[in-house]
Amino acid sequence: METVIAFIVIFGTLVAFHEFGHFLFAKKAGIMVREFAIGMGPKILAVRKGETQYTIRLLPLGGYVRMAGEDFDTVELQPGYRVGLLLNAQDEIEKIYLNRNVSNPNILNVEVEKSDLDKELYIEGYDEDGQLVHLKISRTAMIIEKGQETLIAPYDRQFESKSLGSRALAIFAGPLFNFILAFFIFLALGLMNGVPTNEPIISEVKPDTPAEMAGMKKDDLVTAVDGKSIDSWLKFSEAIQKSAGVPMSIEVDRAGKQVILDVVPDTVEDAGQEFGQIGVMYSSPLEKGFIKSIVFGAEQTYTWTVKIFELLGMLVTGQFTIDALSGPVGIYKATEEVAQHGIFNLMNWGAVLSINLGIMNLLPLPALDGGRLLFFLFEGLRGKPIDKQKEGMVHFVGIMLLMVLMLVVTWNDIQRFFF
Protein backbone atom coordinates (compact mmCIF):
# COMPACT_ATOMS: atom_id res chain seq x y z
CA MET A 1 0.00 0.00 0.00
CA GLU A 2 2.87 2.38 0.75
CA THR A 3 4.26 1.73 -2.74
CA VAL A 4 0.86 2.36 -4.32
CA ILE A 5 0.52 5.65 -2.46
CA ALA A 6 4.08 6.68 -3.33
CA PHE A 7 3.53 5.84 -7.01
CA ILE A 8 0.25 7.76 -7.20
CA VAL A 9 1.67 10.79 -5.38
CA ILE A 10 4.85 10.92 -7.51
CA PHE A 11 3.19 10.28 -10.86
CA GLY A 12 0.23 12.51 -10.02
CA THR A 13 2.56 15.37 -9.05
CA LEU A 14 4.61 15.04 -12.23
CA VAL A 15 1.50 15.03 -14.43
CA ALA A 16 -0.17 17.86 -12.49
CA PHE A 17 2.90 20.08 -12.82
CA HIS A 18 3.24 19.24 -16.52
CA GLU A 19 -0.40 20.09 -17.21
CA PHE A 20 -0.18 23.20 -15.03
CA GLY A 21 2.48 24.49 -17.44
CA HIS A 22 0.08 24.08 -20.37
CA PHE A 23 -2.74 25.60 -18.31
CA LEU A 24 -0.79 28.64 -17.12
CA PHE A 25 0.54 29.65 -20.53
CA ALA A 26 -2.79 28.97 -22.23
CA LYS A 27 -4.51 31.30 -19.76
CA LYS A 28 -1.75 33.87 -20.23
CA ALA A 29 -2.37 33.79 -23.99
CA GLY A 30 -6.12 34.29 -23.46
CA ILE A 31 -7.08 30.74 -24.47
CA MET A 32 -10.17 29.29 -22.80
CA VAL A 33 -9.29 26.12 -20.88
CA ARG A 34 -12.36 23.90 -20.66
CA GLU A 35 -10.87 21.17 -18.46
CA PHE A 36 -7.82 20.56 -16.33
CA ALA A 37 -7.68 16.79 -15.74
CA ILE A 38 -5.37 14.67 -13.62
CA GLY A 39 -5.57 11.00 -14.59
CA MET A 40 -7.43 9.31 -17.41
CA GLY A 41 -10.71 7.44 -17.72
CA PRO A 42 -13.94 8.00 -15.73
CA LYS A 43 -14.25 11.05 -13.49
CA ILE A 44 -13.90 10.56 -9.73
CA LEU A 45 -14.18 14.21 -8.73
CA ALA A 46 -15.13 17.31 -10.70
CA VAL A 47 -15.19 20.95 -9.56
CA ARG A 48 -16.00 23.91 -11.80
CA LYS A 49 -14.38 27.26 -11.13
CA GLY A 50 -15.05 29.98 -13.66
CA GLU A 51 -14.84 28.65 -17.19
CA THR A 52 -12.66 25.65 -16.27
CA GLN A 53 -13.67 22.27 -14.87
CA TYR A 54 -11.03 20.63 -12.67
CA THR A 55 -11.28 16.84 -12.62
CA ILE A 56 -9.55 13.87 -11.04
CA ARG A 57 -9.94 10.70 -13.07
CA LEU A 58 -9.67 7.03 -12.21
CA LEU A 59 -6.39 5.95 -13.83
CA PRO A 60 -3.31 7.81 -12.48
CA LEU A 61 -1.40 7.39 -15.74
CA GLY A 62 -1.65 10.79 -17.36
CA GLY A 63 -3.70 13.93 -17.62
CA TYR A 64 -4.60 16.69 -20.03
CA VAL A 65 -5.62 20.31 -20.48
CA ARG A 66 -8.52 20.67 -22.91
CA MET A 67 -8.36 24.03 -24.67
CA ALA A 68 -11.20 25.63 -26.61
CA GLY A 69 -11.00 25.10 -30.35
CA GLU A 70 -9.09 21.82 -30.16
CA ASP A 71 -10.32 18.38 -31.19
CA PHE A 72 -13.57 19.47 -32.85
CA ASP A 73 -14.51 21.47 -29.80
CA THR A 74 -16.82 23.92 -31.61
CA VAL A 75 -20.54 23.39 -32.25
CA GLU A 76 -22.21 24.04 -35.62
CA LEU A 77 -25.96 24.55 -36.03
CA GLN A 78 -27.12 23.33 -39.41
CA PRO A 79 -30.00 25.06 -41.26
CA GLY A 80 -33.34 23.57 -40.26
CA TYR A 81 -32.19 22.58 -36.77
CA ARG A 82 -34.62 23.61 -34.03
CA VAL A 83 -33.15 25.11 -30.85
CA GLY A 84 -34.50 26.71 -27.70
CA LEU A 85 -33.05 30.12 -26.85
CA LEU A 86 -33.09 31.90 -23.50
CA LEU A 87 -32.40 35.65 -23.69
CA ASN A 88 -30.89 37.95 -21.07
CA ALA A 89 -31.92 41.51 -20.22
CA GLN A 90 -29.97 42.85 -23.23
CA ASP A 91 -31.90 40.51 -25.58
CA GLU A 92 -28.75 38.48 -26.15
CA ILE A 93 -28.81 34.71 -26.18
CA GLU A 94 -27.43 33.39 -22.90
CA LYS A 95 -28.52 29.75 -23.23
CA ILE A 96 -28.90 27.55 -26.30
CA TYR A 97 -30.90 24.36 -25.72
CA LEU A 98 -30.21 21.65 -28.28
CA ASN A 99 -32.98 19.46 -26.81
CA ARG A 100 -36.23 20.06 -28.61
CA ASN A 101 -38.66 19.68 -25.73
CA VAL A 102 -37.66 22.04 -22.93
CA SER A 103 -40.42 23.09 -20.55
CA ASN A 104 -39.73 26.76 -19.94
CA PRO A 105 -42.19 29.50 -20.97
CA ASN A 106 -39.37 32.02 -21.40
CA ILE A 107 -37.60 29.96 -24.06
CA LEU A 108 -37.86 31.13 -27.65
CA ASN A 109 -38.00 28.19 -30.09
CA VAL A 110 -36.26 28.95 -33.36
CA GLU A 111 -35.69 26.99 -36.54
CA VAL A 112 -32.13 27.91 -37.54
CA GLU A 113 -31.61 29.48 -40.94
CA LYS A 114 -27.96 30.40 -40.41
CA SER A 115 -25.66 30.97 -37.45
CA ASP A 116 -22.12 31.71 -36.34
CA LEU A 117 -21.09 30.60 -32.85
CA ASP A 118 -17.41 31.52 -33.27
CA LYS A 119 -16.76 34.93 -34.82
CA GLU A 120 -19.89 36.99 -35.44
CA LEU A 121 -21.87 35.33 -32.62
CA TYR A 122 -25.45 35.29 -33.90
CA ILE A 123 -28.33 32.96 -34.70
CA GLU A 124 -30.82 33.80 -37.43
CA GLY A 125 -33.98 31.80 -37.98
CA TYR A 126 -37.75 31.58 -37.83
CA ASP A 127 -39.65 31.68 -34.55
CA GLU A 128 -42.91 29.83 -33.83
CA ASP A 129 -44.91 32.61 -35.55
CA GLY A 130 -42.87 32.26 -38.73
CA GLN A 131 -41.10 35.57 -38.16
CA LEU A 132 -37.41 35.85 -39.16
CA VAL A 133 -35.36 36.86 -36.12
CA HIS A 134 -31.70 37.79 -35.84
CA LEU A 135 -30.30 37.44 -32.34
CA LYS A 136 -26.85 38.18 -30.96
CA ILE A 137 -25.16 35.58 -28.77
CA SER A 138 -23.61 36.61 -25.47
CA ARG A 139 -19.86 35.89 -25.18
CA THR A 140 -20.65 33.91 -22.04
CA ALA A 141 -23.56 31.92 -23.48
CA MET A 142 -24.03 28.26 -22.59
CA ILE A 143 -24.92 25.41 -24.93
CA ILE A 144 -27.08 22.83 -23.12
CA GLU A 145 -27.51 19.30 -24.42
CA LYS A 146 -28.86 16.40 -22.38
CA GLY A 147 -28.25 18.29 -19.16
CA GLN A 148 -24.60 19.05 -20.00
CA GLU A 149 -23.61 22.72 -20.13
CA THR A 150 -20.79 23.90 -22.41
CA LEU A 151 -19.59 27.48 -22.47
CA ILE A 152 -19.27 28.81 -26.01
CA ALA A 153 -15.80 29.85 -27.11
CA PRO A 154 -15.61 33.03 -29.21
CA TYR A 155 -12.90 32.69 -31.85
CA ASP A 156 -10.52 35.05 -30.04
CA ARG A 157 -10.59 32.65 -27.04
CA GLN A 158 -9.76 29.57 -29.15
CA PHE A 159 -6.34 27.96 -29.44
CA GLU A 160 -6.06 28.42 -33.21
CA SER A 161 -6.77 32.16 -33.03
CA LYS A 162 -3.54 32.87 -31.17
CA SER A 163 -0.17 33.70 -32.68
CA LEU A 164 2.27 30.92 -33.53
CA GLY A 165 4.51 31.96 -30.65
CA SER A 166 1.69 31.89 -28.08
CA ARG A 167 0.52 28.45 -29.24
CA ALA A 168 4.06 27.06 -29.21
CA LEU A 169 4.66 28.40 -25.68
CA ALA A 170 1.41 26.87 -24.42
CA ILE A 171 2.56 23.46 -25.69
CA PHE A 172 6.23 23.79 -24.71
CA ALA A 173 5.33 24.92 -21.18
CA GLY A 174 4.29 21.39 -20.16
CA PRO A 175 7.75 19.79 -20.57
CA LEU A 176 9.39 23.00 -19.35
CA PHE A 177 7.52 22.75 -16.04
CA ASN A 178 8.80 19.19 -15.58
CA PHE A 179 12.37 20.52 -15.66
CA ILE A 180 11.37 23.32 -13.27
CA LEU A 181 9.79 20.78 -10.90
CA ALA A 182 12.95 18.64 -10.97
CA PHE A 183 15.07 21.69 -10.13
CA PHE A 184 12.90 22.57 -7.13
CA ILE A 185 12.95 18.97 -5.87
CA PHE A 186 16.75 18.91 -6.03
CA LEU A 187 16.79 22.34 -4.39
CA ALA A 188 14.59 21.03 -1.56
CA LEU A 189 16.86 18.02 -1.15
CA GLY A 190 19.85 20.34 -0.83
CA LEU A 191 18.10 22.48 1.78
CA MET A 192 16.79 19.56 3.85
CA ASN A 193 19.51 16.95 3.46
CA GLY A 194 22.56 18.98 2.51
CA VAL A 195 24.69 19.17 -0.62
CA PRO A 196 27.49 16.64 -1.24
CA THR A 197 30.87 18.38 -1.27
CA ASN A 198 31.97 15.95 -4.01
CA GLU A 199 35.53 16.01 -2.71
CA PRO A 200 37.53 12.95 -3.87
CA ILE A 201 38.08 11.56 -0.36
CA ILE A 202 38.47 7.78 0.03
CA SER A 203 36.03 6.48 2.66
CA GLU A 204 36.85 2.76 2.30
CA VAL A 205 39.45 0.59 0.57
CA LYS A 206 38.25 -2.91 -0.22
CA PRO A 207 40.65 -5.82 0.48
CA ASP A 208 42.50 -7.60 -2.31
CA THR A 209 41.92 -4.80 -4.82
CA PRO A 210 44.30 -2.68 -6.91
CA ALA A 211 43.80 0.22 -4.48
CA GLU A 212 44.86 -1.82 -1.45
CA MET A 213 47.82 -3.34 -3.25
CA ALA A 214 48.97 0.16 -4.27
CA GLY A 215 48.83 1.32 -0.63
CA MET A 216 45.77 3.55 -0.79
CA LYS A 217 44.18 4.23 2.60
CA LYS A 218 40.97 5.54 4.10
CA ASP A 219 40.71 9.38 4.25
CA ASP A 220 43.21 9.85 1.41
CA LEU A 221 42.33 12.97 -0.60
CA VAL A 222 42.99 12.46 -4.31
CA THR A 223 44.62 15.56 -5.81
CA ALA A 224 45.87 14.40 -9.23
CA VAL A 225 45.78 11.49 -11.68
CA ASP A 226 48.64 11.12 -14.19
CA GLY A 227 49.66 14.70 -13.47
CA LYS A 228 46.18 16.13 -14.10
CA SER A 229 44.53 17.97 -11.23
CA ILE A 230 41.46 16.30 -9.69
CA ASP A 231 38.97 18.39 -7.71
CA SER A 232 35.88 16.15 -7.59
CA TRP A 233 34.98 12.53 -7.09
CA LEU A 234 33.23 12.52 -10.46
CA LYS A 235 36.45 13.43 -12.30
CA PHE A 236 38.38 10.81 -10.32
CA SER A 237 35.78 8.14 -11.06
CA GLU A 238 35.74 8.97 -14.77
CA ALA A 239 39.56 8.79 -14.94
CA ILE A 240 39.52 5.32 -13.32
CA GLN A 241 36.71 4.01 -15.55
CA LYS A 242 38.52 5.10 -18.74
CA SER A 243 41.79 3.37 -17.74
CA ALA A 244 40.87 -0.30 -17.52
CA GLY A 245 44.13 -2.32 -17.36
CA VAL A 246 46.28 0.79 -17.87
CA PRO A 247 48.88 1.77 -15.21
CA MET A 248 48.04 5.05 -13.47
CA SER A 249 49.83 7.45 -11.16
CA ILE A 250 47.52 8.73 -8.42
CA GLU A 251 48.63 11.55 -6.14
CA VAL A 252 46.92 11.80 -2.75
CA ASP A 253 47.08 14.12 0.23
CA ARG A 254 47.55 11.97 3.35
CA ALA A 255 47.46 14.01 6.55
CA GLY A 256 49.16 16.92 4.81
CA LYS A 257 51.78 14.82 3.01
CA GLN A 258 51.78 14.23 -0.76
CA VAL A 259 51.95 10.52 -1.63
CA ILE A 260 52.16 9.08 -5.15
CA LEU A 261 50.63 5.65 -5.75
CA ASP A 262 50.94 3.44 -8.86
CA VAL A 263 47.69 1.62 -9.62
CA VAL A 264 46.50 -0.67 -12.45
CA PRO A 265 42.65 -0.70 -12.51
CA ASP A 266 40.90 -4.02 -12.92
CA THR A 267 38.85 -4.49 -16.08
CA VAL A 268 35.13 -4.94 -15.44
CA GLU A 269 32.58 -5.65 -18.17
CA ASP A 270 28.96 -4.54 -17.97
CA ALA A 271 26.34 -4.37 -20.73
CA GLY A 272 29.00 -5.10 -23.35
CA GLN A 273 31.24 -2.25 -22.21
CA GLU A 274 34.57 -2.39 -20.33
CA PHE A 275 35.57 0.05 -17.61
CA GLY A 276 38.20 0.31 -14.90
CA GLN A 277 37.74 -0.29 -11.18
CA ILE A 278 40.25 -0.07 -8.30
CA GLY A 279 38.09 -0.99 -5.27
CA VAL A 280 37.50 2.22 -3.33
CA MET A 281 34.32 3.65 -1.83
CA TYR A 282 33.18 7.24 -1.58
CA SER A 283 31.12 8.89 1.12
CA SER A 284 30.85 12.62 0.65
CA PRO A 285 30.19 14.90 3.63
CA LEU A 286 27.11 17.10 3.29
CA GLU A 287 26.95 20.87 3.57
CA LYS A 288 23.86 23.02 3.93
CA GLY A 289 23.36 26.45 2.41
CA PHE A 290 20.81 28.23 0.24
CA ILE A 291 23.23 29.21 -2.55
CA LYS A 292 24.84 25.76 -2.53
CA SER A 293 21.37 24.20 -2.79
CA ILE A 294 20.48 26.37 -5.81
CA VAL A 295 23.71 25.37 -7.55
CA PHE A 296 23.09 21.72 -6.61
CA GLY A 297 19.57 21.86 -8.06
CA ALA A 298 20.78 23.32 -11.35
CA GLU A 299 23.72 20.90 -11.62
CA GLN A 300 21.60 17.83 -10.90
CA THR A 301 18.92 18.90 -13.37
CA TYR A 302 21.55 19.43 -16.07
CA THR A 303 23.42 16.20 -15.27
CA TRP A 304 20.33 14.00 -15.42
CA THR A 305 19.10 15.72 -18.59
CA VAL A 306 22.40 14.91 -20.30
CA LYS A 307 22.33 11.32 -19.02
CA ILE A 308 18.81 10.68 -20.32
CA PHE A 309 19.69 12.15 -23.73
CA GLU A 310 22.74 9.87 -23.81
CA LEU A 311 20.52 6.86 -23.11
CA LEU A 312 18.16 7.94 -25.89
CA GLY A 313 21.15 8.17 -28.22
CA MET A 314 22.15 4.62 -27.25
CA LEU A 315 18.61 3.43 -28.01
CA VAL A 316 18.59 5.13 -31.43
CA THR A 317 22.02 3.73 -32.34
CA GLY A 318 21.02 0.22 -31.24
CA GLN A 319 23.36 -0.04 -28.26
CA PHE A 320 20.44 -1.47 -26.31
CA THR A 321 17.05 -2.80 -27.43
CA ILE A 322 13.44 -2.02 -26.65
CA ASP A 323 13.56 -4.79 -24.01
CA ALA A 324 15.55 -2.40 -21.81
CA LEU A 325 12.71 0.15 -21.75
CA SER A 326 10.26 0.31 -18.84
CA GLY A 327 6.64 1.36 -18.76
CA PRO A 328 4.25 2.02 -15.85
CA VAL A 329 4.85 -1.45 -14.36
CA GLY A 330 8.62 -0.98 -14.46
CA ILE A 331 8.33 2.50 -12.92
CA TYR A 332 6.07 1.08 -10.21
CA LYS A 333 8.59 -1.65 -9.34
CA ALA A 334 11.46 0.84 -9.32
CA THR A 335 9.42 3.13 -7.05
CA GLU A 336 8.85 0.18 -4.72
CA GLU A 337 12.60 -0.41 -4.44
CA VAL A 338 13.49 3.27 -4.03
CA ALA A 339 10.79 3.81 -1.38
CA GLN A 340 12.53 1.31 0.88
CA HIS A 341 15.52 3.67 1.16
CA GLY A 342 13.71 6.66 2.58
CA ILE A 343 11.96 9.87 1.57
CA PHE A 344 15.08 11.63 0.25
CA ASN A 345 15.79 8.84 -2.24
CA LEU A 346 12.13 8.86 -3.24
CA MET A 347 12.28 12.61 -3.87
CA ASN A 348 15.43 12.18 -5.95
CA TRP A 349 13.67 9.45 -7.97
CA GLY A 350 10.69 11.77 -8.53
CA ALA A 351 13.00 14.51 -9.84
CA VAL A 352 14.66 12.10 -12.29
CA LEU A 353 11.25 10.87 -13.47
CA SER A 354 10.13 14.49 -13.98
CA ILE A 355 13.13 15.19 -16.23
CA ASN A 356 12.46 11.95 -18.08
CA LEU A 357 8.80 12.91 -18.62
CA GLY A 358 9.82 16.34 -19.90
CA ILE A 359 12.32 14.89 -22.37
CA MET A 360 9.97 12.15 -23.60
CA ASN A 361 7.26 14.72 -24.28
CA LEU A 362 9.70 16.86 -26.28
CA LEU A 363 10.53 14.06 -28.70
CA PRO A 364 9.30 15.03 -32.20
CA LEU A 365 6.77 12.18 -32.34
CA PRO A 366 3.09 12.51 -33.33
CA ALA A 367 0.65 12.97 -30.44
CA LEU A 368 3.42 14.18 -28.10
CA ASP A 369 4.15 17.83 -27.32
CA GLY A 370 7.30 17.57 -29.42
CA GLY A 371 5.24 16.38 -32.39
CA ARG A 372 2.95 19.38 -32.11
CA LEU A 373 5.93 21.70 -31.84
CA LEU A 374 7.28 20.11 -35.02
CA PHE A 375 4.07 21.03 -36.84
CA PHE A 376 4.41 24.59 -35.52
CA LEU A 377 7.94 24.63 -36.99
CA PHE A 378 6.55 23.57 -40.37
CA GLU A 379 3.91 26.28 -40.07
CA GLY A 380 6.57 28.89 -39.39
CA LEU A 381 8.64 27.76 -42.38
CA ARG A 382 5.64 27.56 -44.75
CA GLY A 383 3.99 30.72 -43.53
CA LYS A 384 0.68 28.91 -43.09
CA PRO A 385 -0.58 26.05 -40.93
CA ILE A 386 -0.74 22.41 -42.01
CA ASP A 387 -4.22 21.20 -42.95
CA LYS A 388 -5.94 20.26 -39.66
CA GLN A 389 -7.39 17.02 -40.99
CA LYS A 390 -3.97 15.85 -42.17
CA GLU A 391 -2.34 16.87 -38.90
CA GLY A 392 -5.10 15.13 -36.96
CA MET A 393 -4.58 11.94 -38.94
CA VAL A 394 -0.84 12.00 -38.24
CA HIS A 395 -1.47 12.46 -34.51
CA PHE A 396 -4.07 9.67 -34.54
CA VAL A 397 -1.62 7.25 -36.14
CA GLY A 398 1.00 8.39 -33.64
CA ILE A 399 -1.34 7.67 -30.72
CA MET A 400 -2.00 4.16 -32.06
CA LEU A 401 1.72 3.45 -32.44
CA LEU A 402 2.45 4.79 -28.95
CA MET A 403 -0.27 2.57 -27.52
CA VAL A 404 1.26 -0.46 -29.24
CA LEU A 405 4.69 0.50 -27.88
CA MET A 406 3.21 0.91 -24.40
CA LEU A 407 1.61 -2.54 -24.59
CA VAL A 408 4.91 -4.12 -25.68
CA VAL A 409 6.90 -2.37 -22.96
CA THR A 410 4.29 -3.22 -20.31
CA TRP A 411 4.29 -6.89 -21.36
CA ASN A 412 8.09 -6.94 -21.13
CA ASP A 413 7.85 -5.43 -17.63
CA ILE A 414 5.31 -8.04 -16.54
CA GLN A 415 7.49 -10.88 -17.80
CA ARG A 416 10.61 -9.38 -16.23
CA PHE A 417 9.16 -8.77 -12.76
CA PHE A 418 6.54 -11.48 -12.34
CA PHE A 419 7.78 -14.44 -14.39
Précis, in short:
The chain is α+β, with helices and mostly antiparallel strands and 419 residues long. It has helices at residues 2-28, 164-193, 210-214, 233-241, 290-316, 328-339, 343-362, 369-382, 388-418, and strands at residues 33-49, 52-67, 82-87, 93-97, 108-116, 122-126, 132-145, 148-151, 195-196, 202-205, 221-225, 228-229, 248-254, 257-263, 266-270, 273-277, 280-282, 286-287.
From N to C, what is the helix and strand string?
Answer: HEEEEEEEEHEEHEEHEEEEEEHHHHH
> How much helicity do the residues have?
40-55%
Gyration radius over CA: 30 Å
Q: Which term fits the overall shape?
A: elongated
How many β strands by DSSP?
A: 18
Overall mean pLDDT: 88
Largest sheet: 5 strands, mixed, barrel
Low-pLDDT parts are: none
Strand numbers in spatial order across the main sheet: 3-4-7-6-5
Tell me the distance between the termini: 22 Å
What does it look like?
It is a single chain. 42% of the residues lie in helices and 28% in strands. It has 419 residues and is an alpha+beta fold. The chain starts with a helix and ends with a helix. It is elongated, with a radius of gyration of 30 Å. The chain is built from 9 helices and 18 strands.
Task: Describe this protein with a few key phrases.
419 residues; alpha+beta; five-stranded mixed β-barrel; four-stranded antiparallel beta sheet; elongated
Architecture blueprint of SSEs:
Layout: H1 2-28, E1 33-49, E2 52-67, E3 82-87, E4 93-97, E5 108-116, E6 122-126, E7 132-145, E8 148-151, H2 164-193, E9 195-196, E10 202-205, H3 210-214, E11 221-225, E12 228-229, H4 233-241, E13 248-254, E14 257-263, E15 266-270, E16 273-277, E17 280-282, E18 286-287, H5 290-316, H6 328-339, H7 343-362, H8 369-382, H9 388-418
Parallel strand pairs: 4-7
Antiparallel strand pairs: 1-2, 3-4, 3-5, 5-6, 6-7, 7-8, 9-18, 10-17, 11-12, 11-13, 13-14, 15-16
Subcellular location: Membrane
Pfam families: PDZ_6, Peptidase_M50
Membrane topology: Multi-pass membrane protein
